[in-house]
Amino acid sequence: MVASVLSAAQLASIALVATDMDGTLTHQGRFTPRLLDALAALAAAQISVVIVTGRSAGWVQAIAHYLPIAGAIAENGGLYMAPAADTYQYLVDLEDPTAHRQHLAAMFERLRRRYPHLQPSGDNAFRLTDWTFDVAGLAPEDLAWLATTCEQTGWGFTYSTVQCHIRPAPQDKGPGLSRVLAEQFPQLRPDQVVTVGDSPNDEGLFDPSRFPLSVGVANVAHYRDRLTHFPRFVTQQPEVAGFCELAAMITAMR
């Protein structure tokens, strides 16, 4: 249980929750009334929430406007959207976004030479900084080959419970969140931020050199042998139930 390892002082110091979405804020892929209650309770306690997701820019624009959150990071650290903003803030440097997408498409076609069944994800057309395809049907050894091949050609690669991502090598949730915190929440210390996730594309959020308080919902245990950085604490419950478990402990301290 998170409470057995997160001290009362640590819980009381938290001012911002930076959380993954799919597999962390969802139950079987969907938002629930319990999640909305937890987000509302955090907002009422003046705890900021920033969603840090691999989902596309198009998805995140809606999420940032409709949920009671302080902002959202899309495409695994590629872009940031504040609720009142009209445009995205790029978190990676792209000289020519159109050419960048063309280069991503070419890398995807290279991967398809070995795995011709790969198909772009349904939201890939709405992306600006990365390229995604469905993770279903790929074994750990397949994912390892995809990662190595991308890295050998100068690209980054990661995956979640939903998608695989081809991305610029520096692009990651950890650096993206660090930049947003420095620019949008400069008053916060590292120990006032808790990061939450459930899968390999959240590993940047578990990096103790950046984020001393990291929490995995229980389903993160499936990836223990594939993560260099494992969350410092793990909830008893999986998915959104685990997030709500953590949120209740934080708000109780207020």
Map the helices and strands.
Blueprint: H1 8-13, E1 16-19, H2 33-44, E2 48-52, H3 57-66, E3 71-74, E4 79-81, E5 89-90, H4 97-112, E6 131-134, H5 140-152, E7 155-159, E8 163-168, H6 173-184, E9 193-197, E10 213-216, E11 233-234, H7 239-252
Helix pairs in contact: 2-7
Task: Write a compact overview of the structure shown.
The protein is an alpha/beta fold and about 250 residues long.
Protein described:
By secondary structure, the chain is an alpha/beta fold. It has 7 helices and 11 strands. It has helices at residues 8-13, 33-44, 57-66, 97-112, 140-152, 173-184, 239-252, and strands at residues 16-19, 48-52, 71-74, 79-81, 89-90, 131-134, 155-159, 163-168, 193-197, 213-216, 233-234. Helix 3 links the parallel strand 2 (48-52) and strand 3 (71-74). Helix 2 runs parallel beside helix 7.
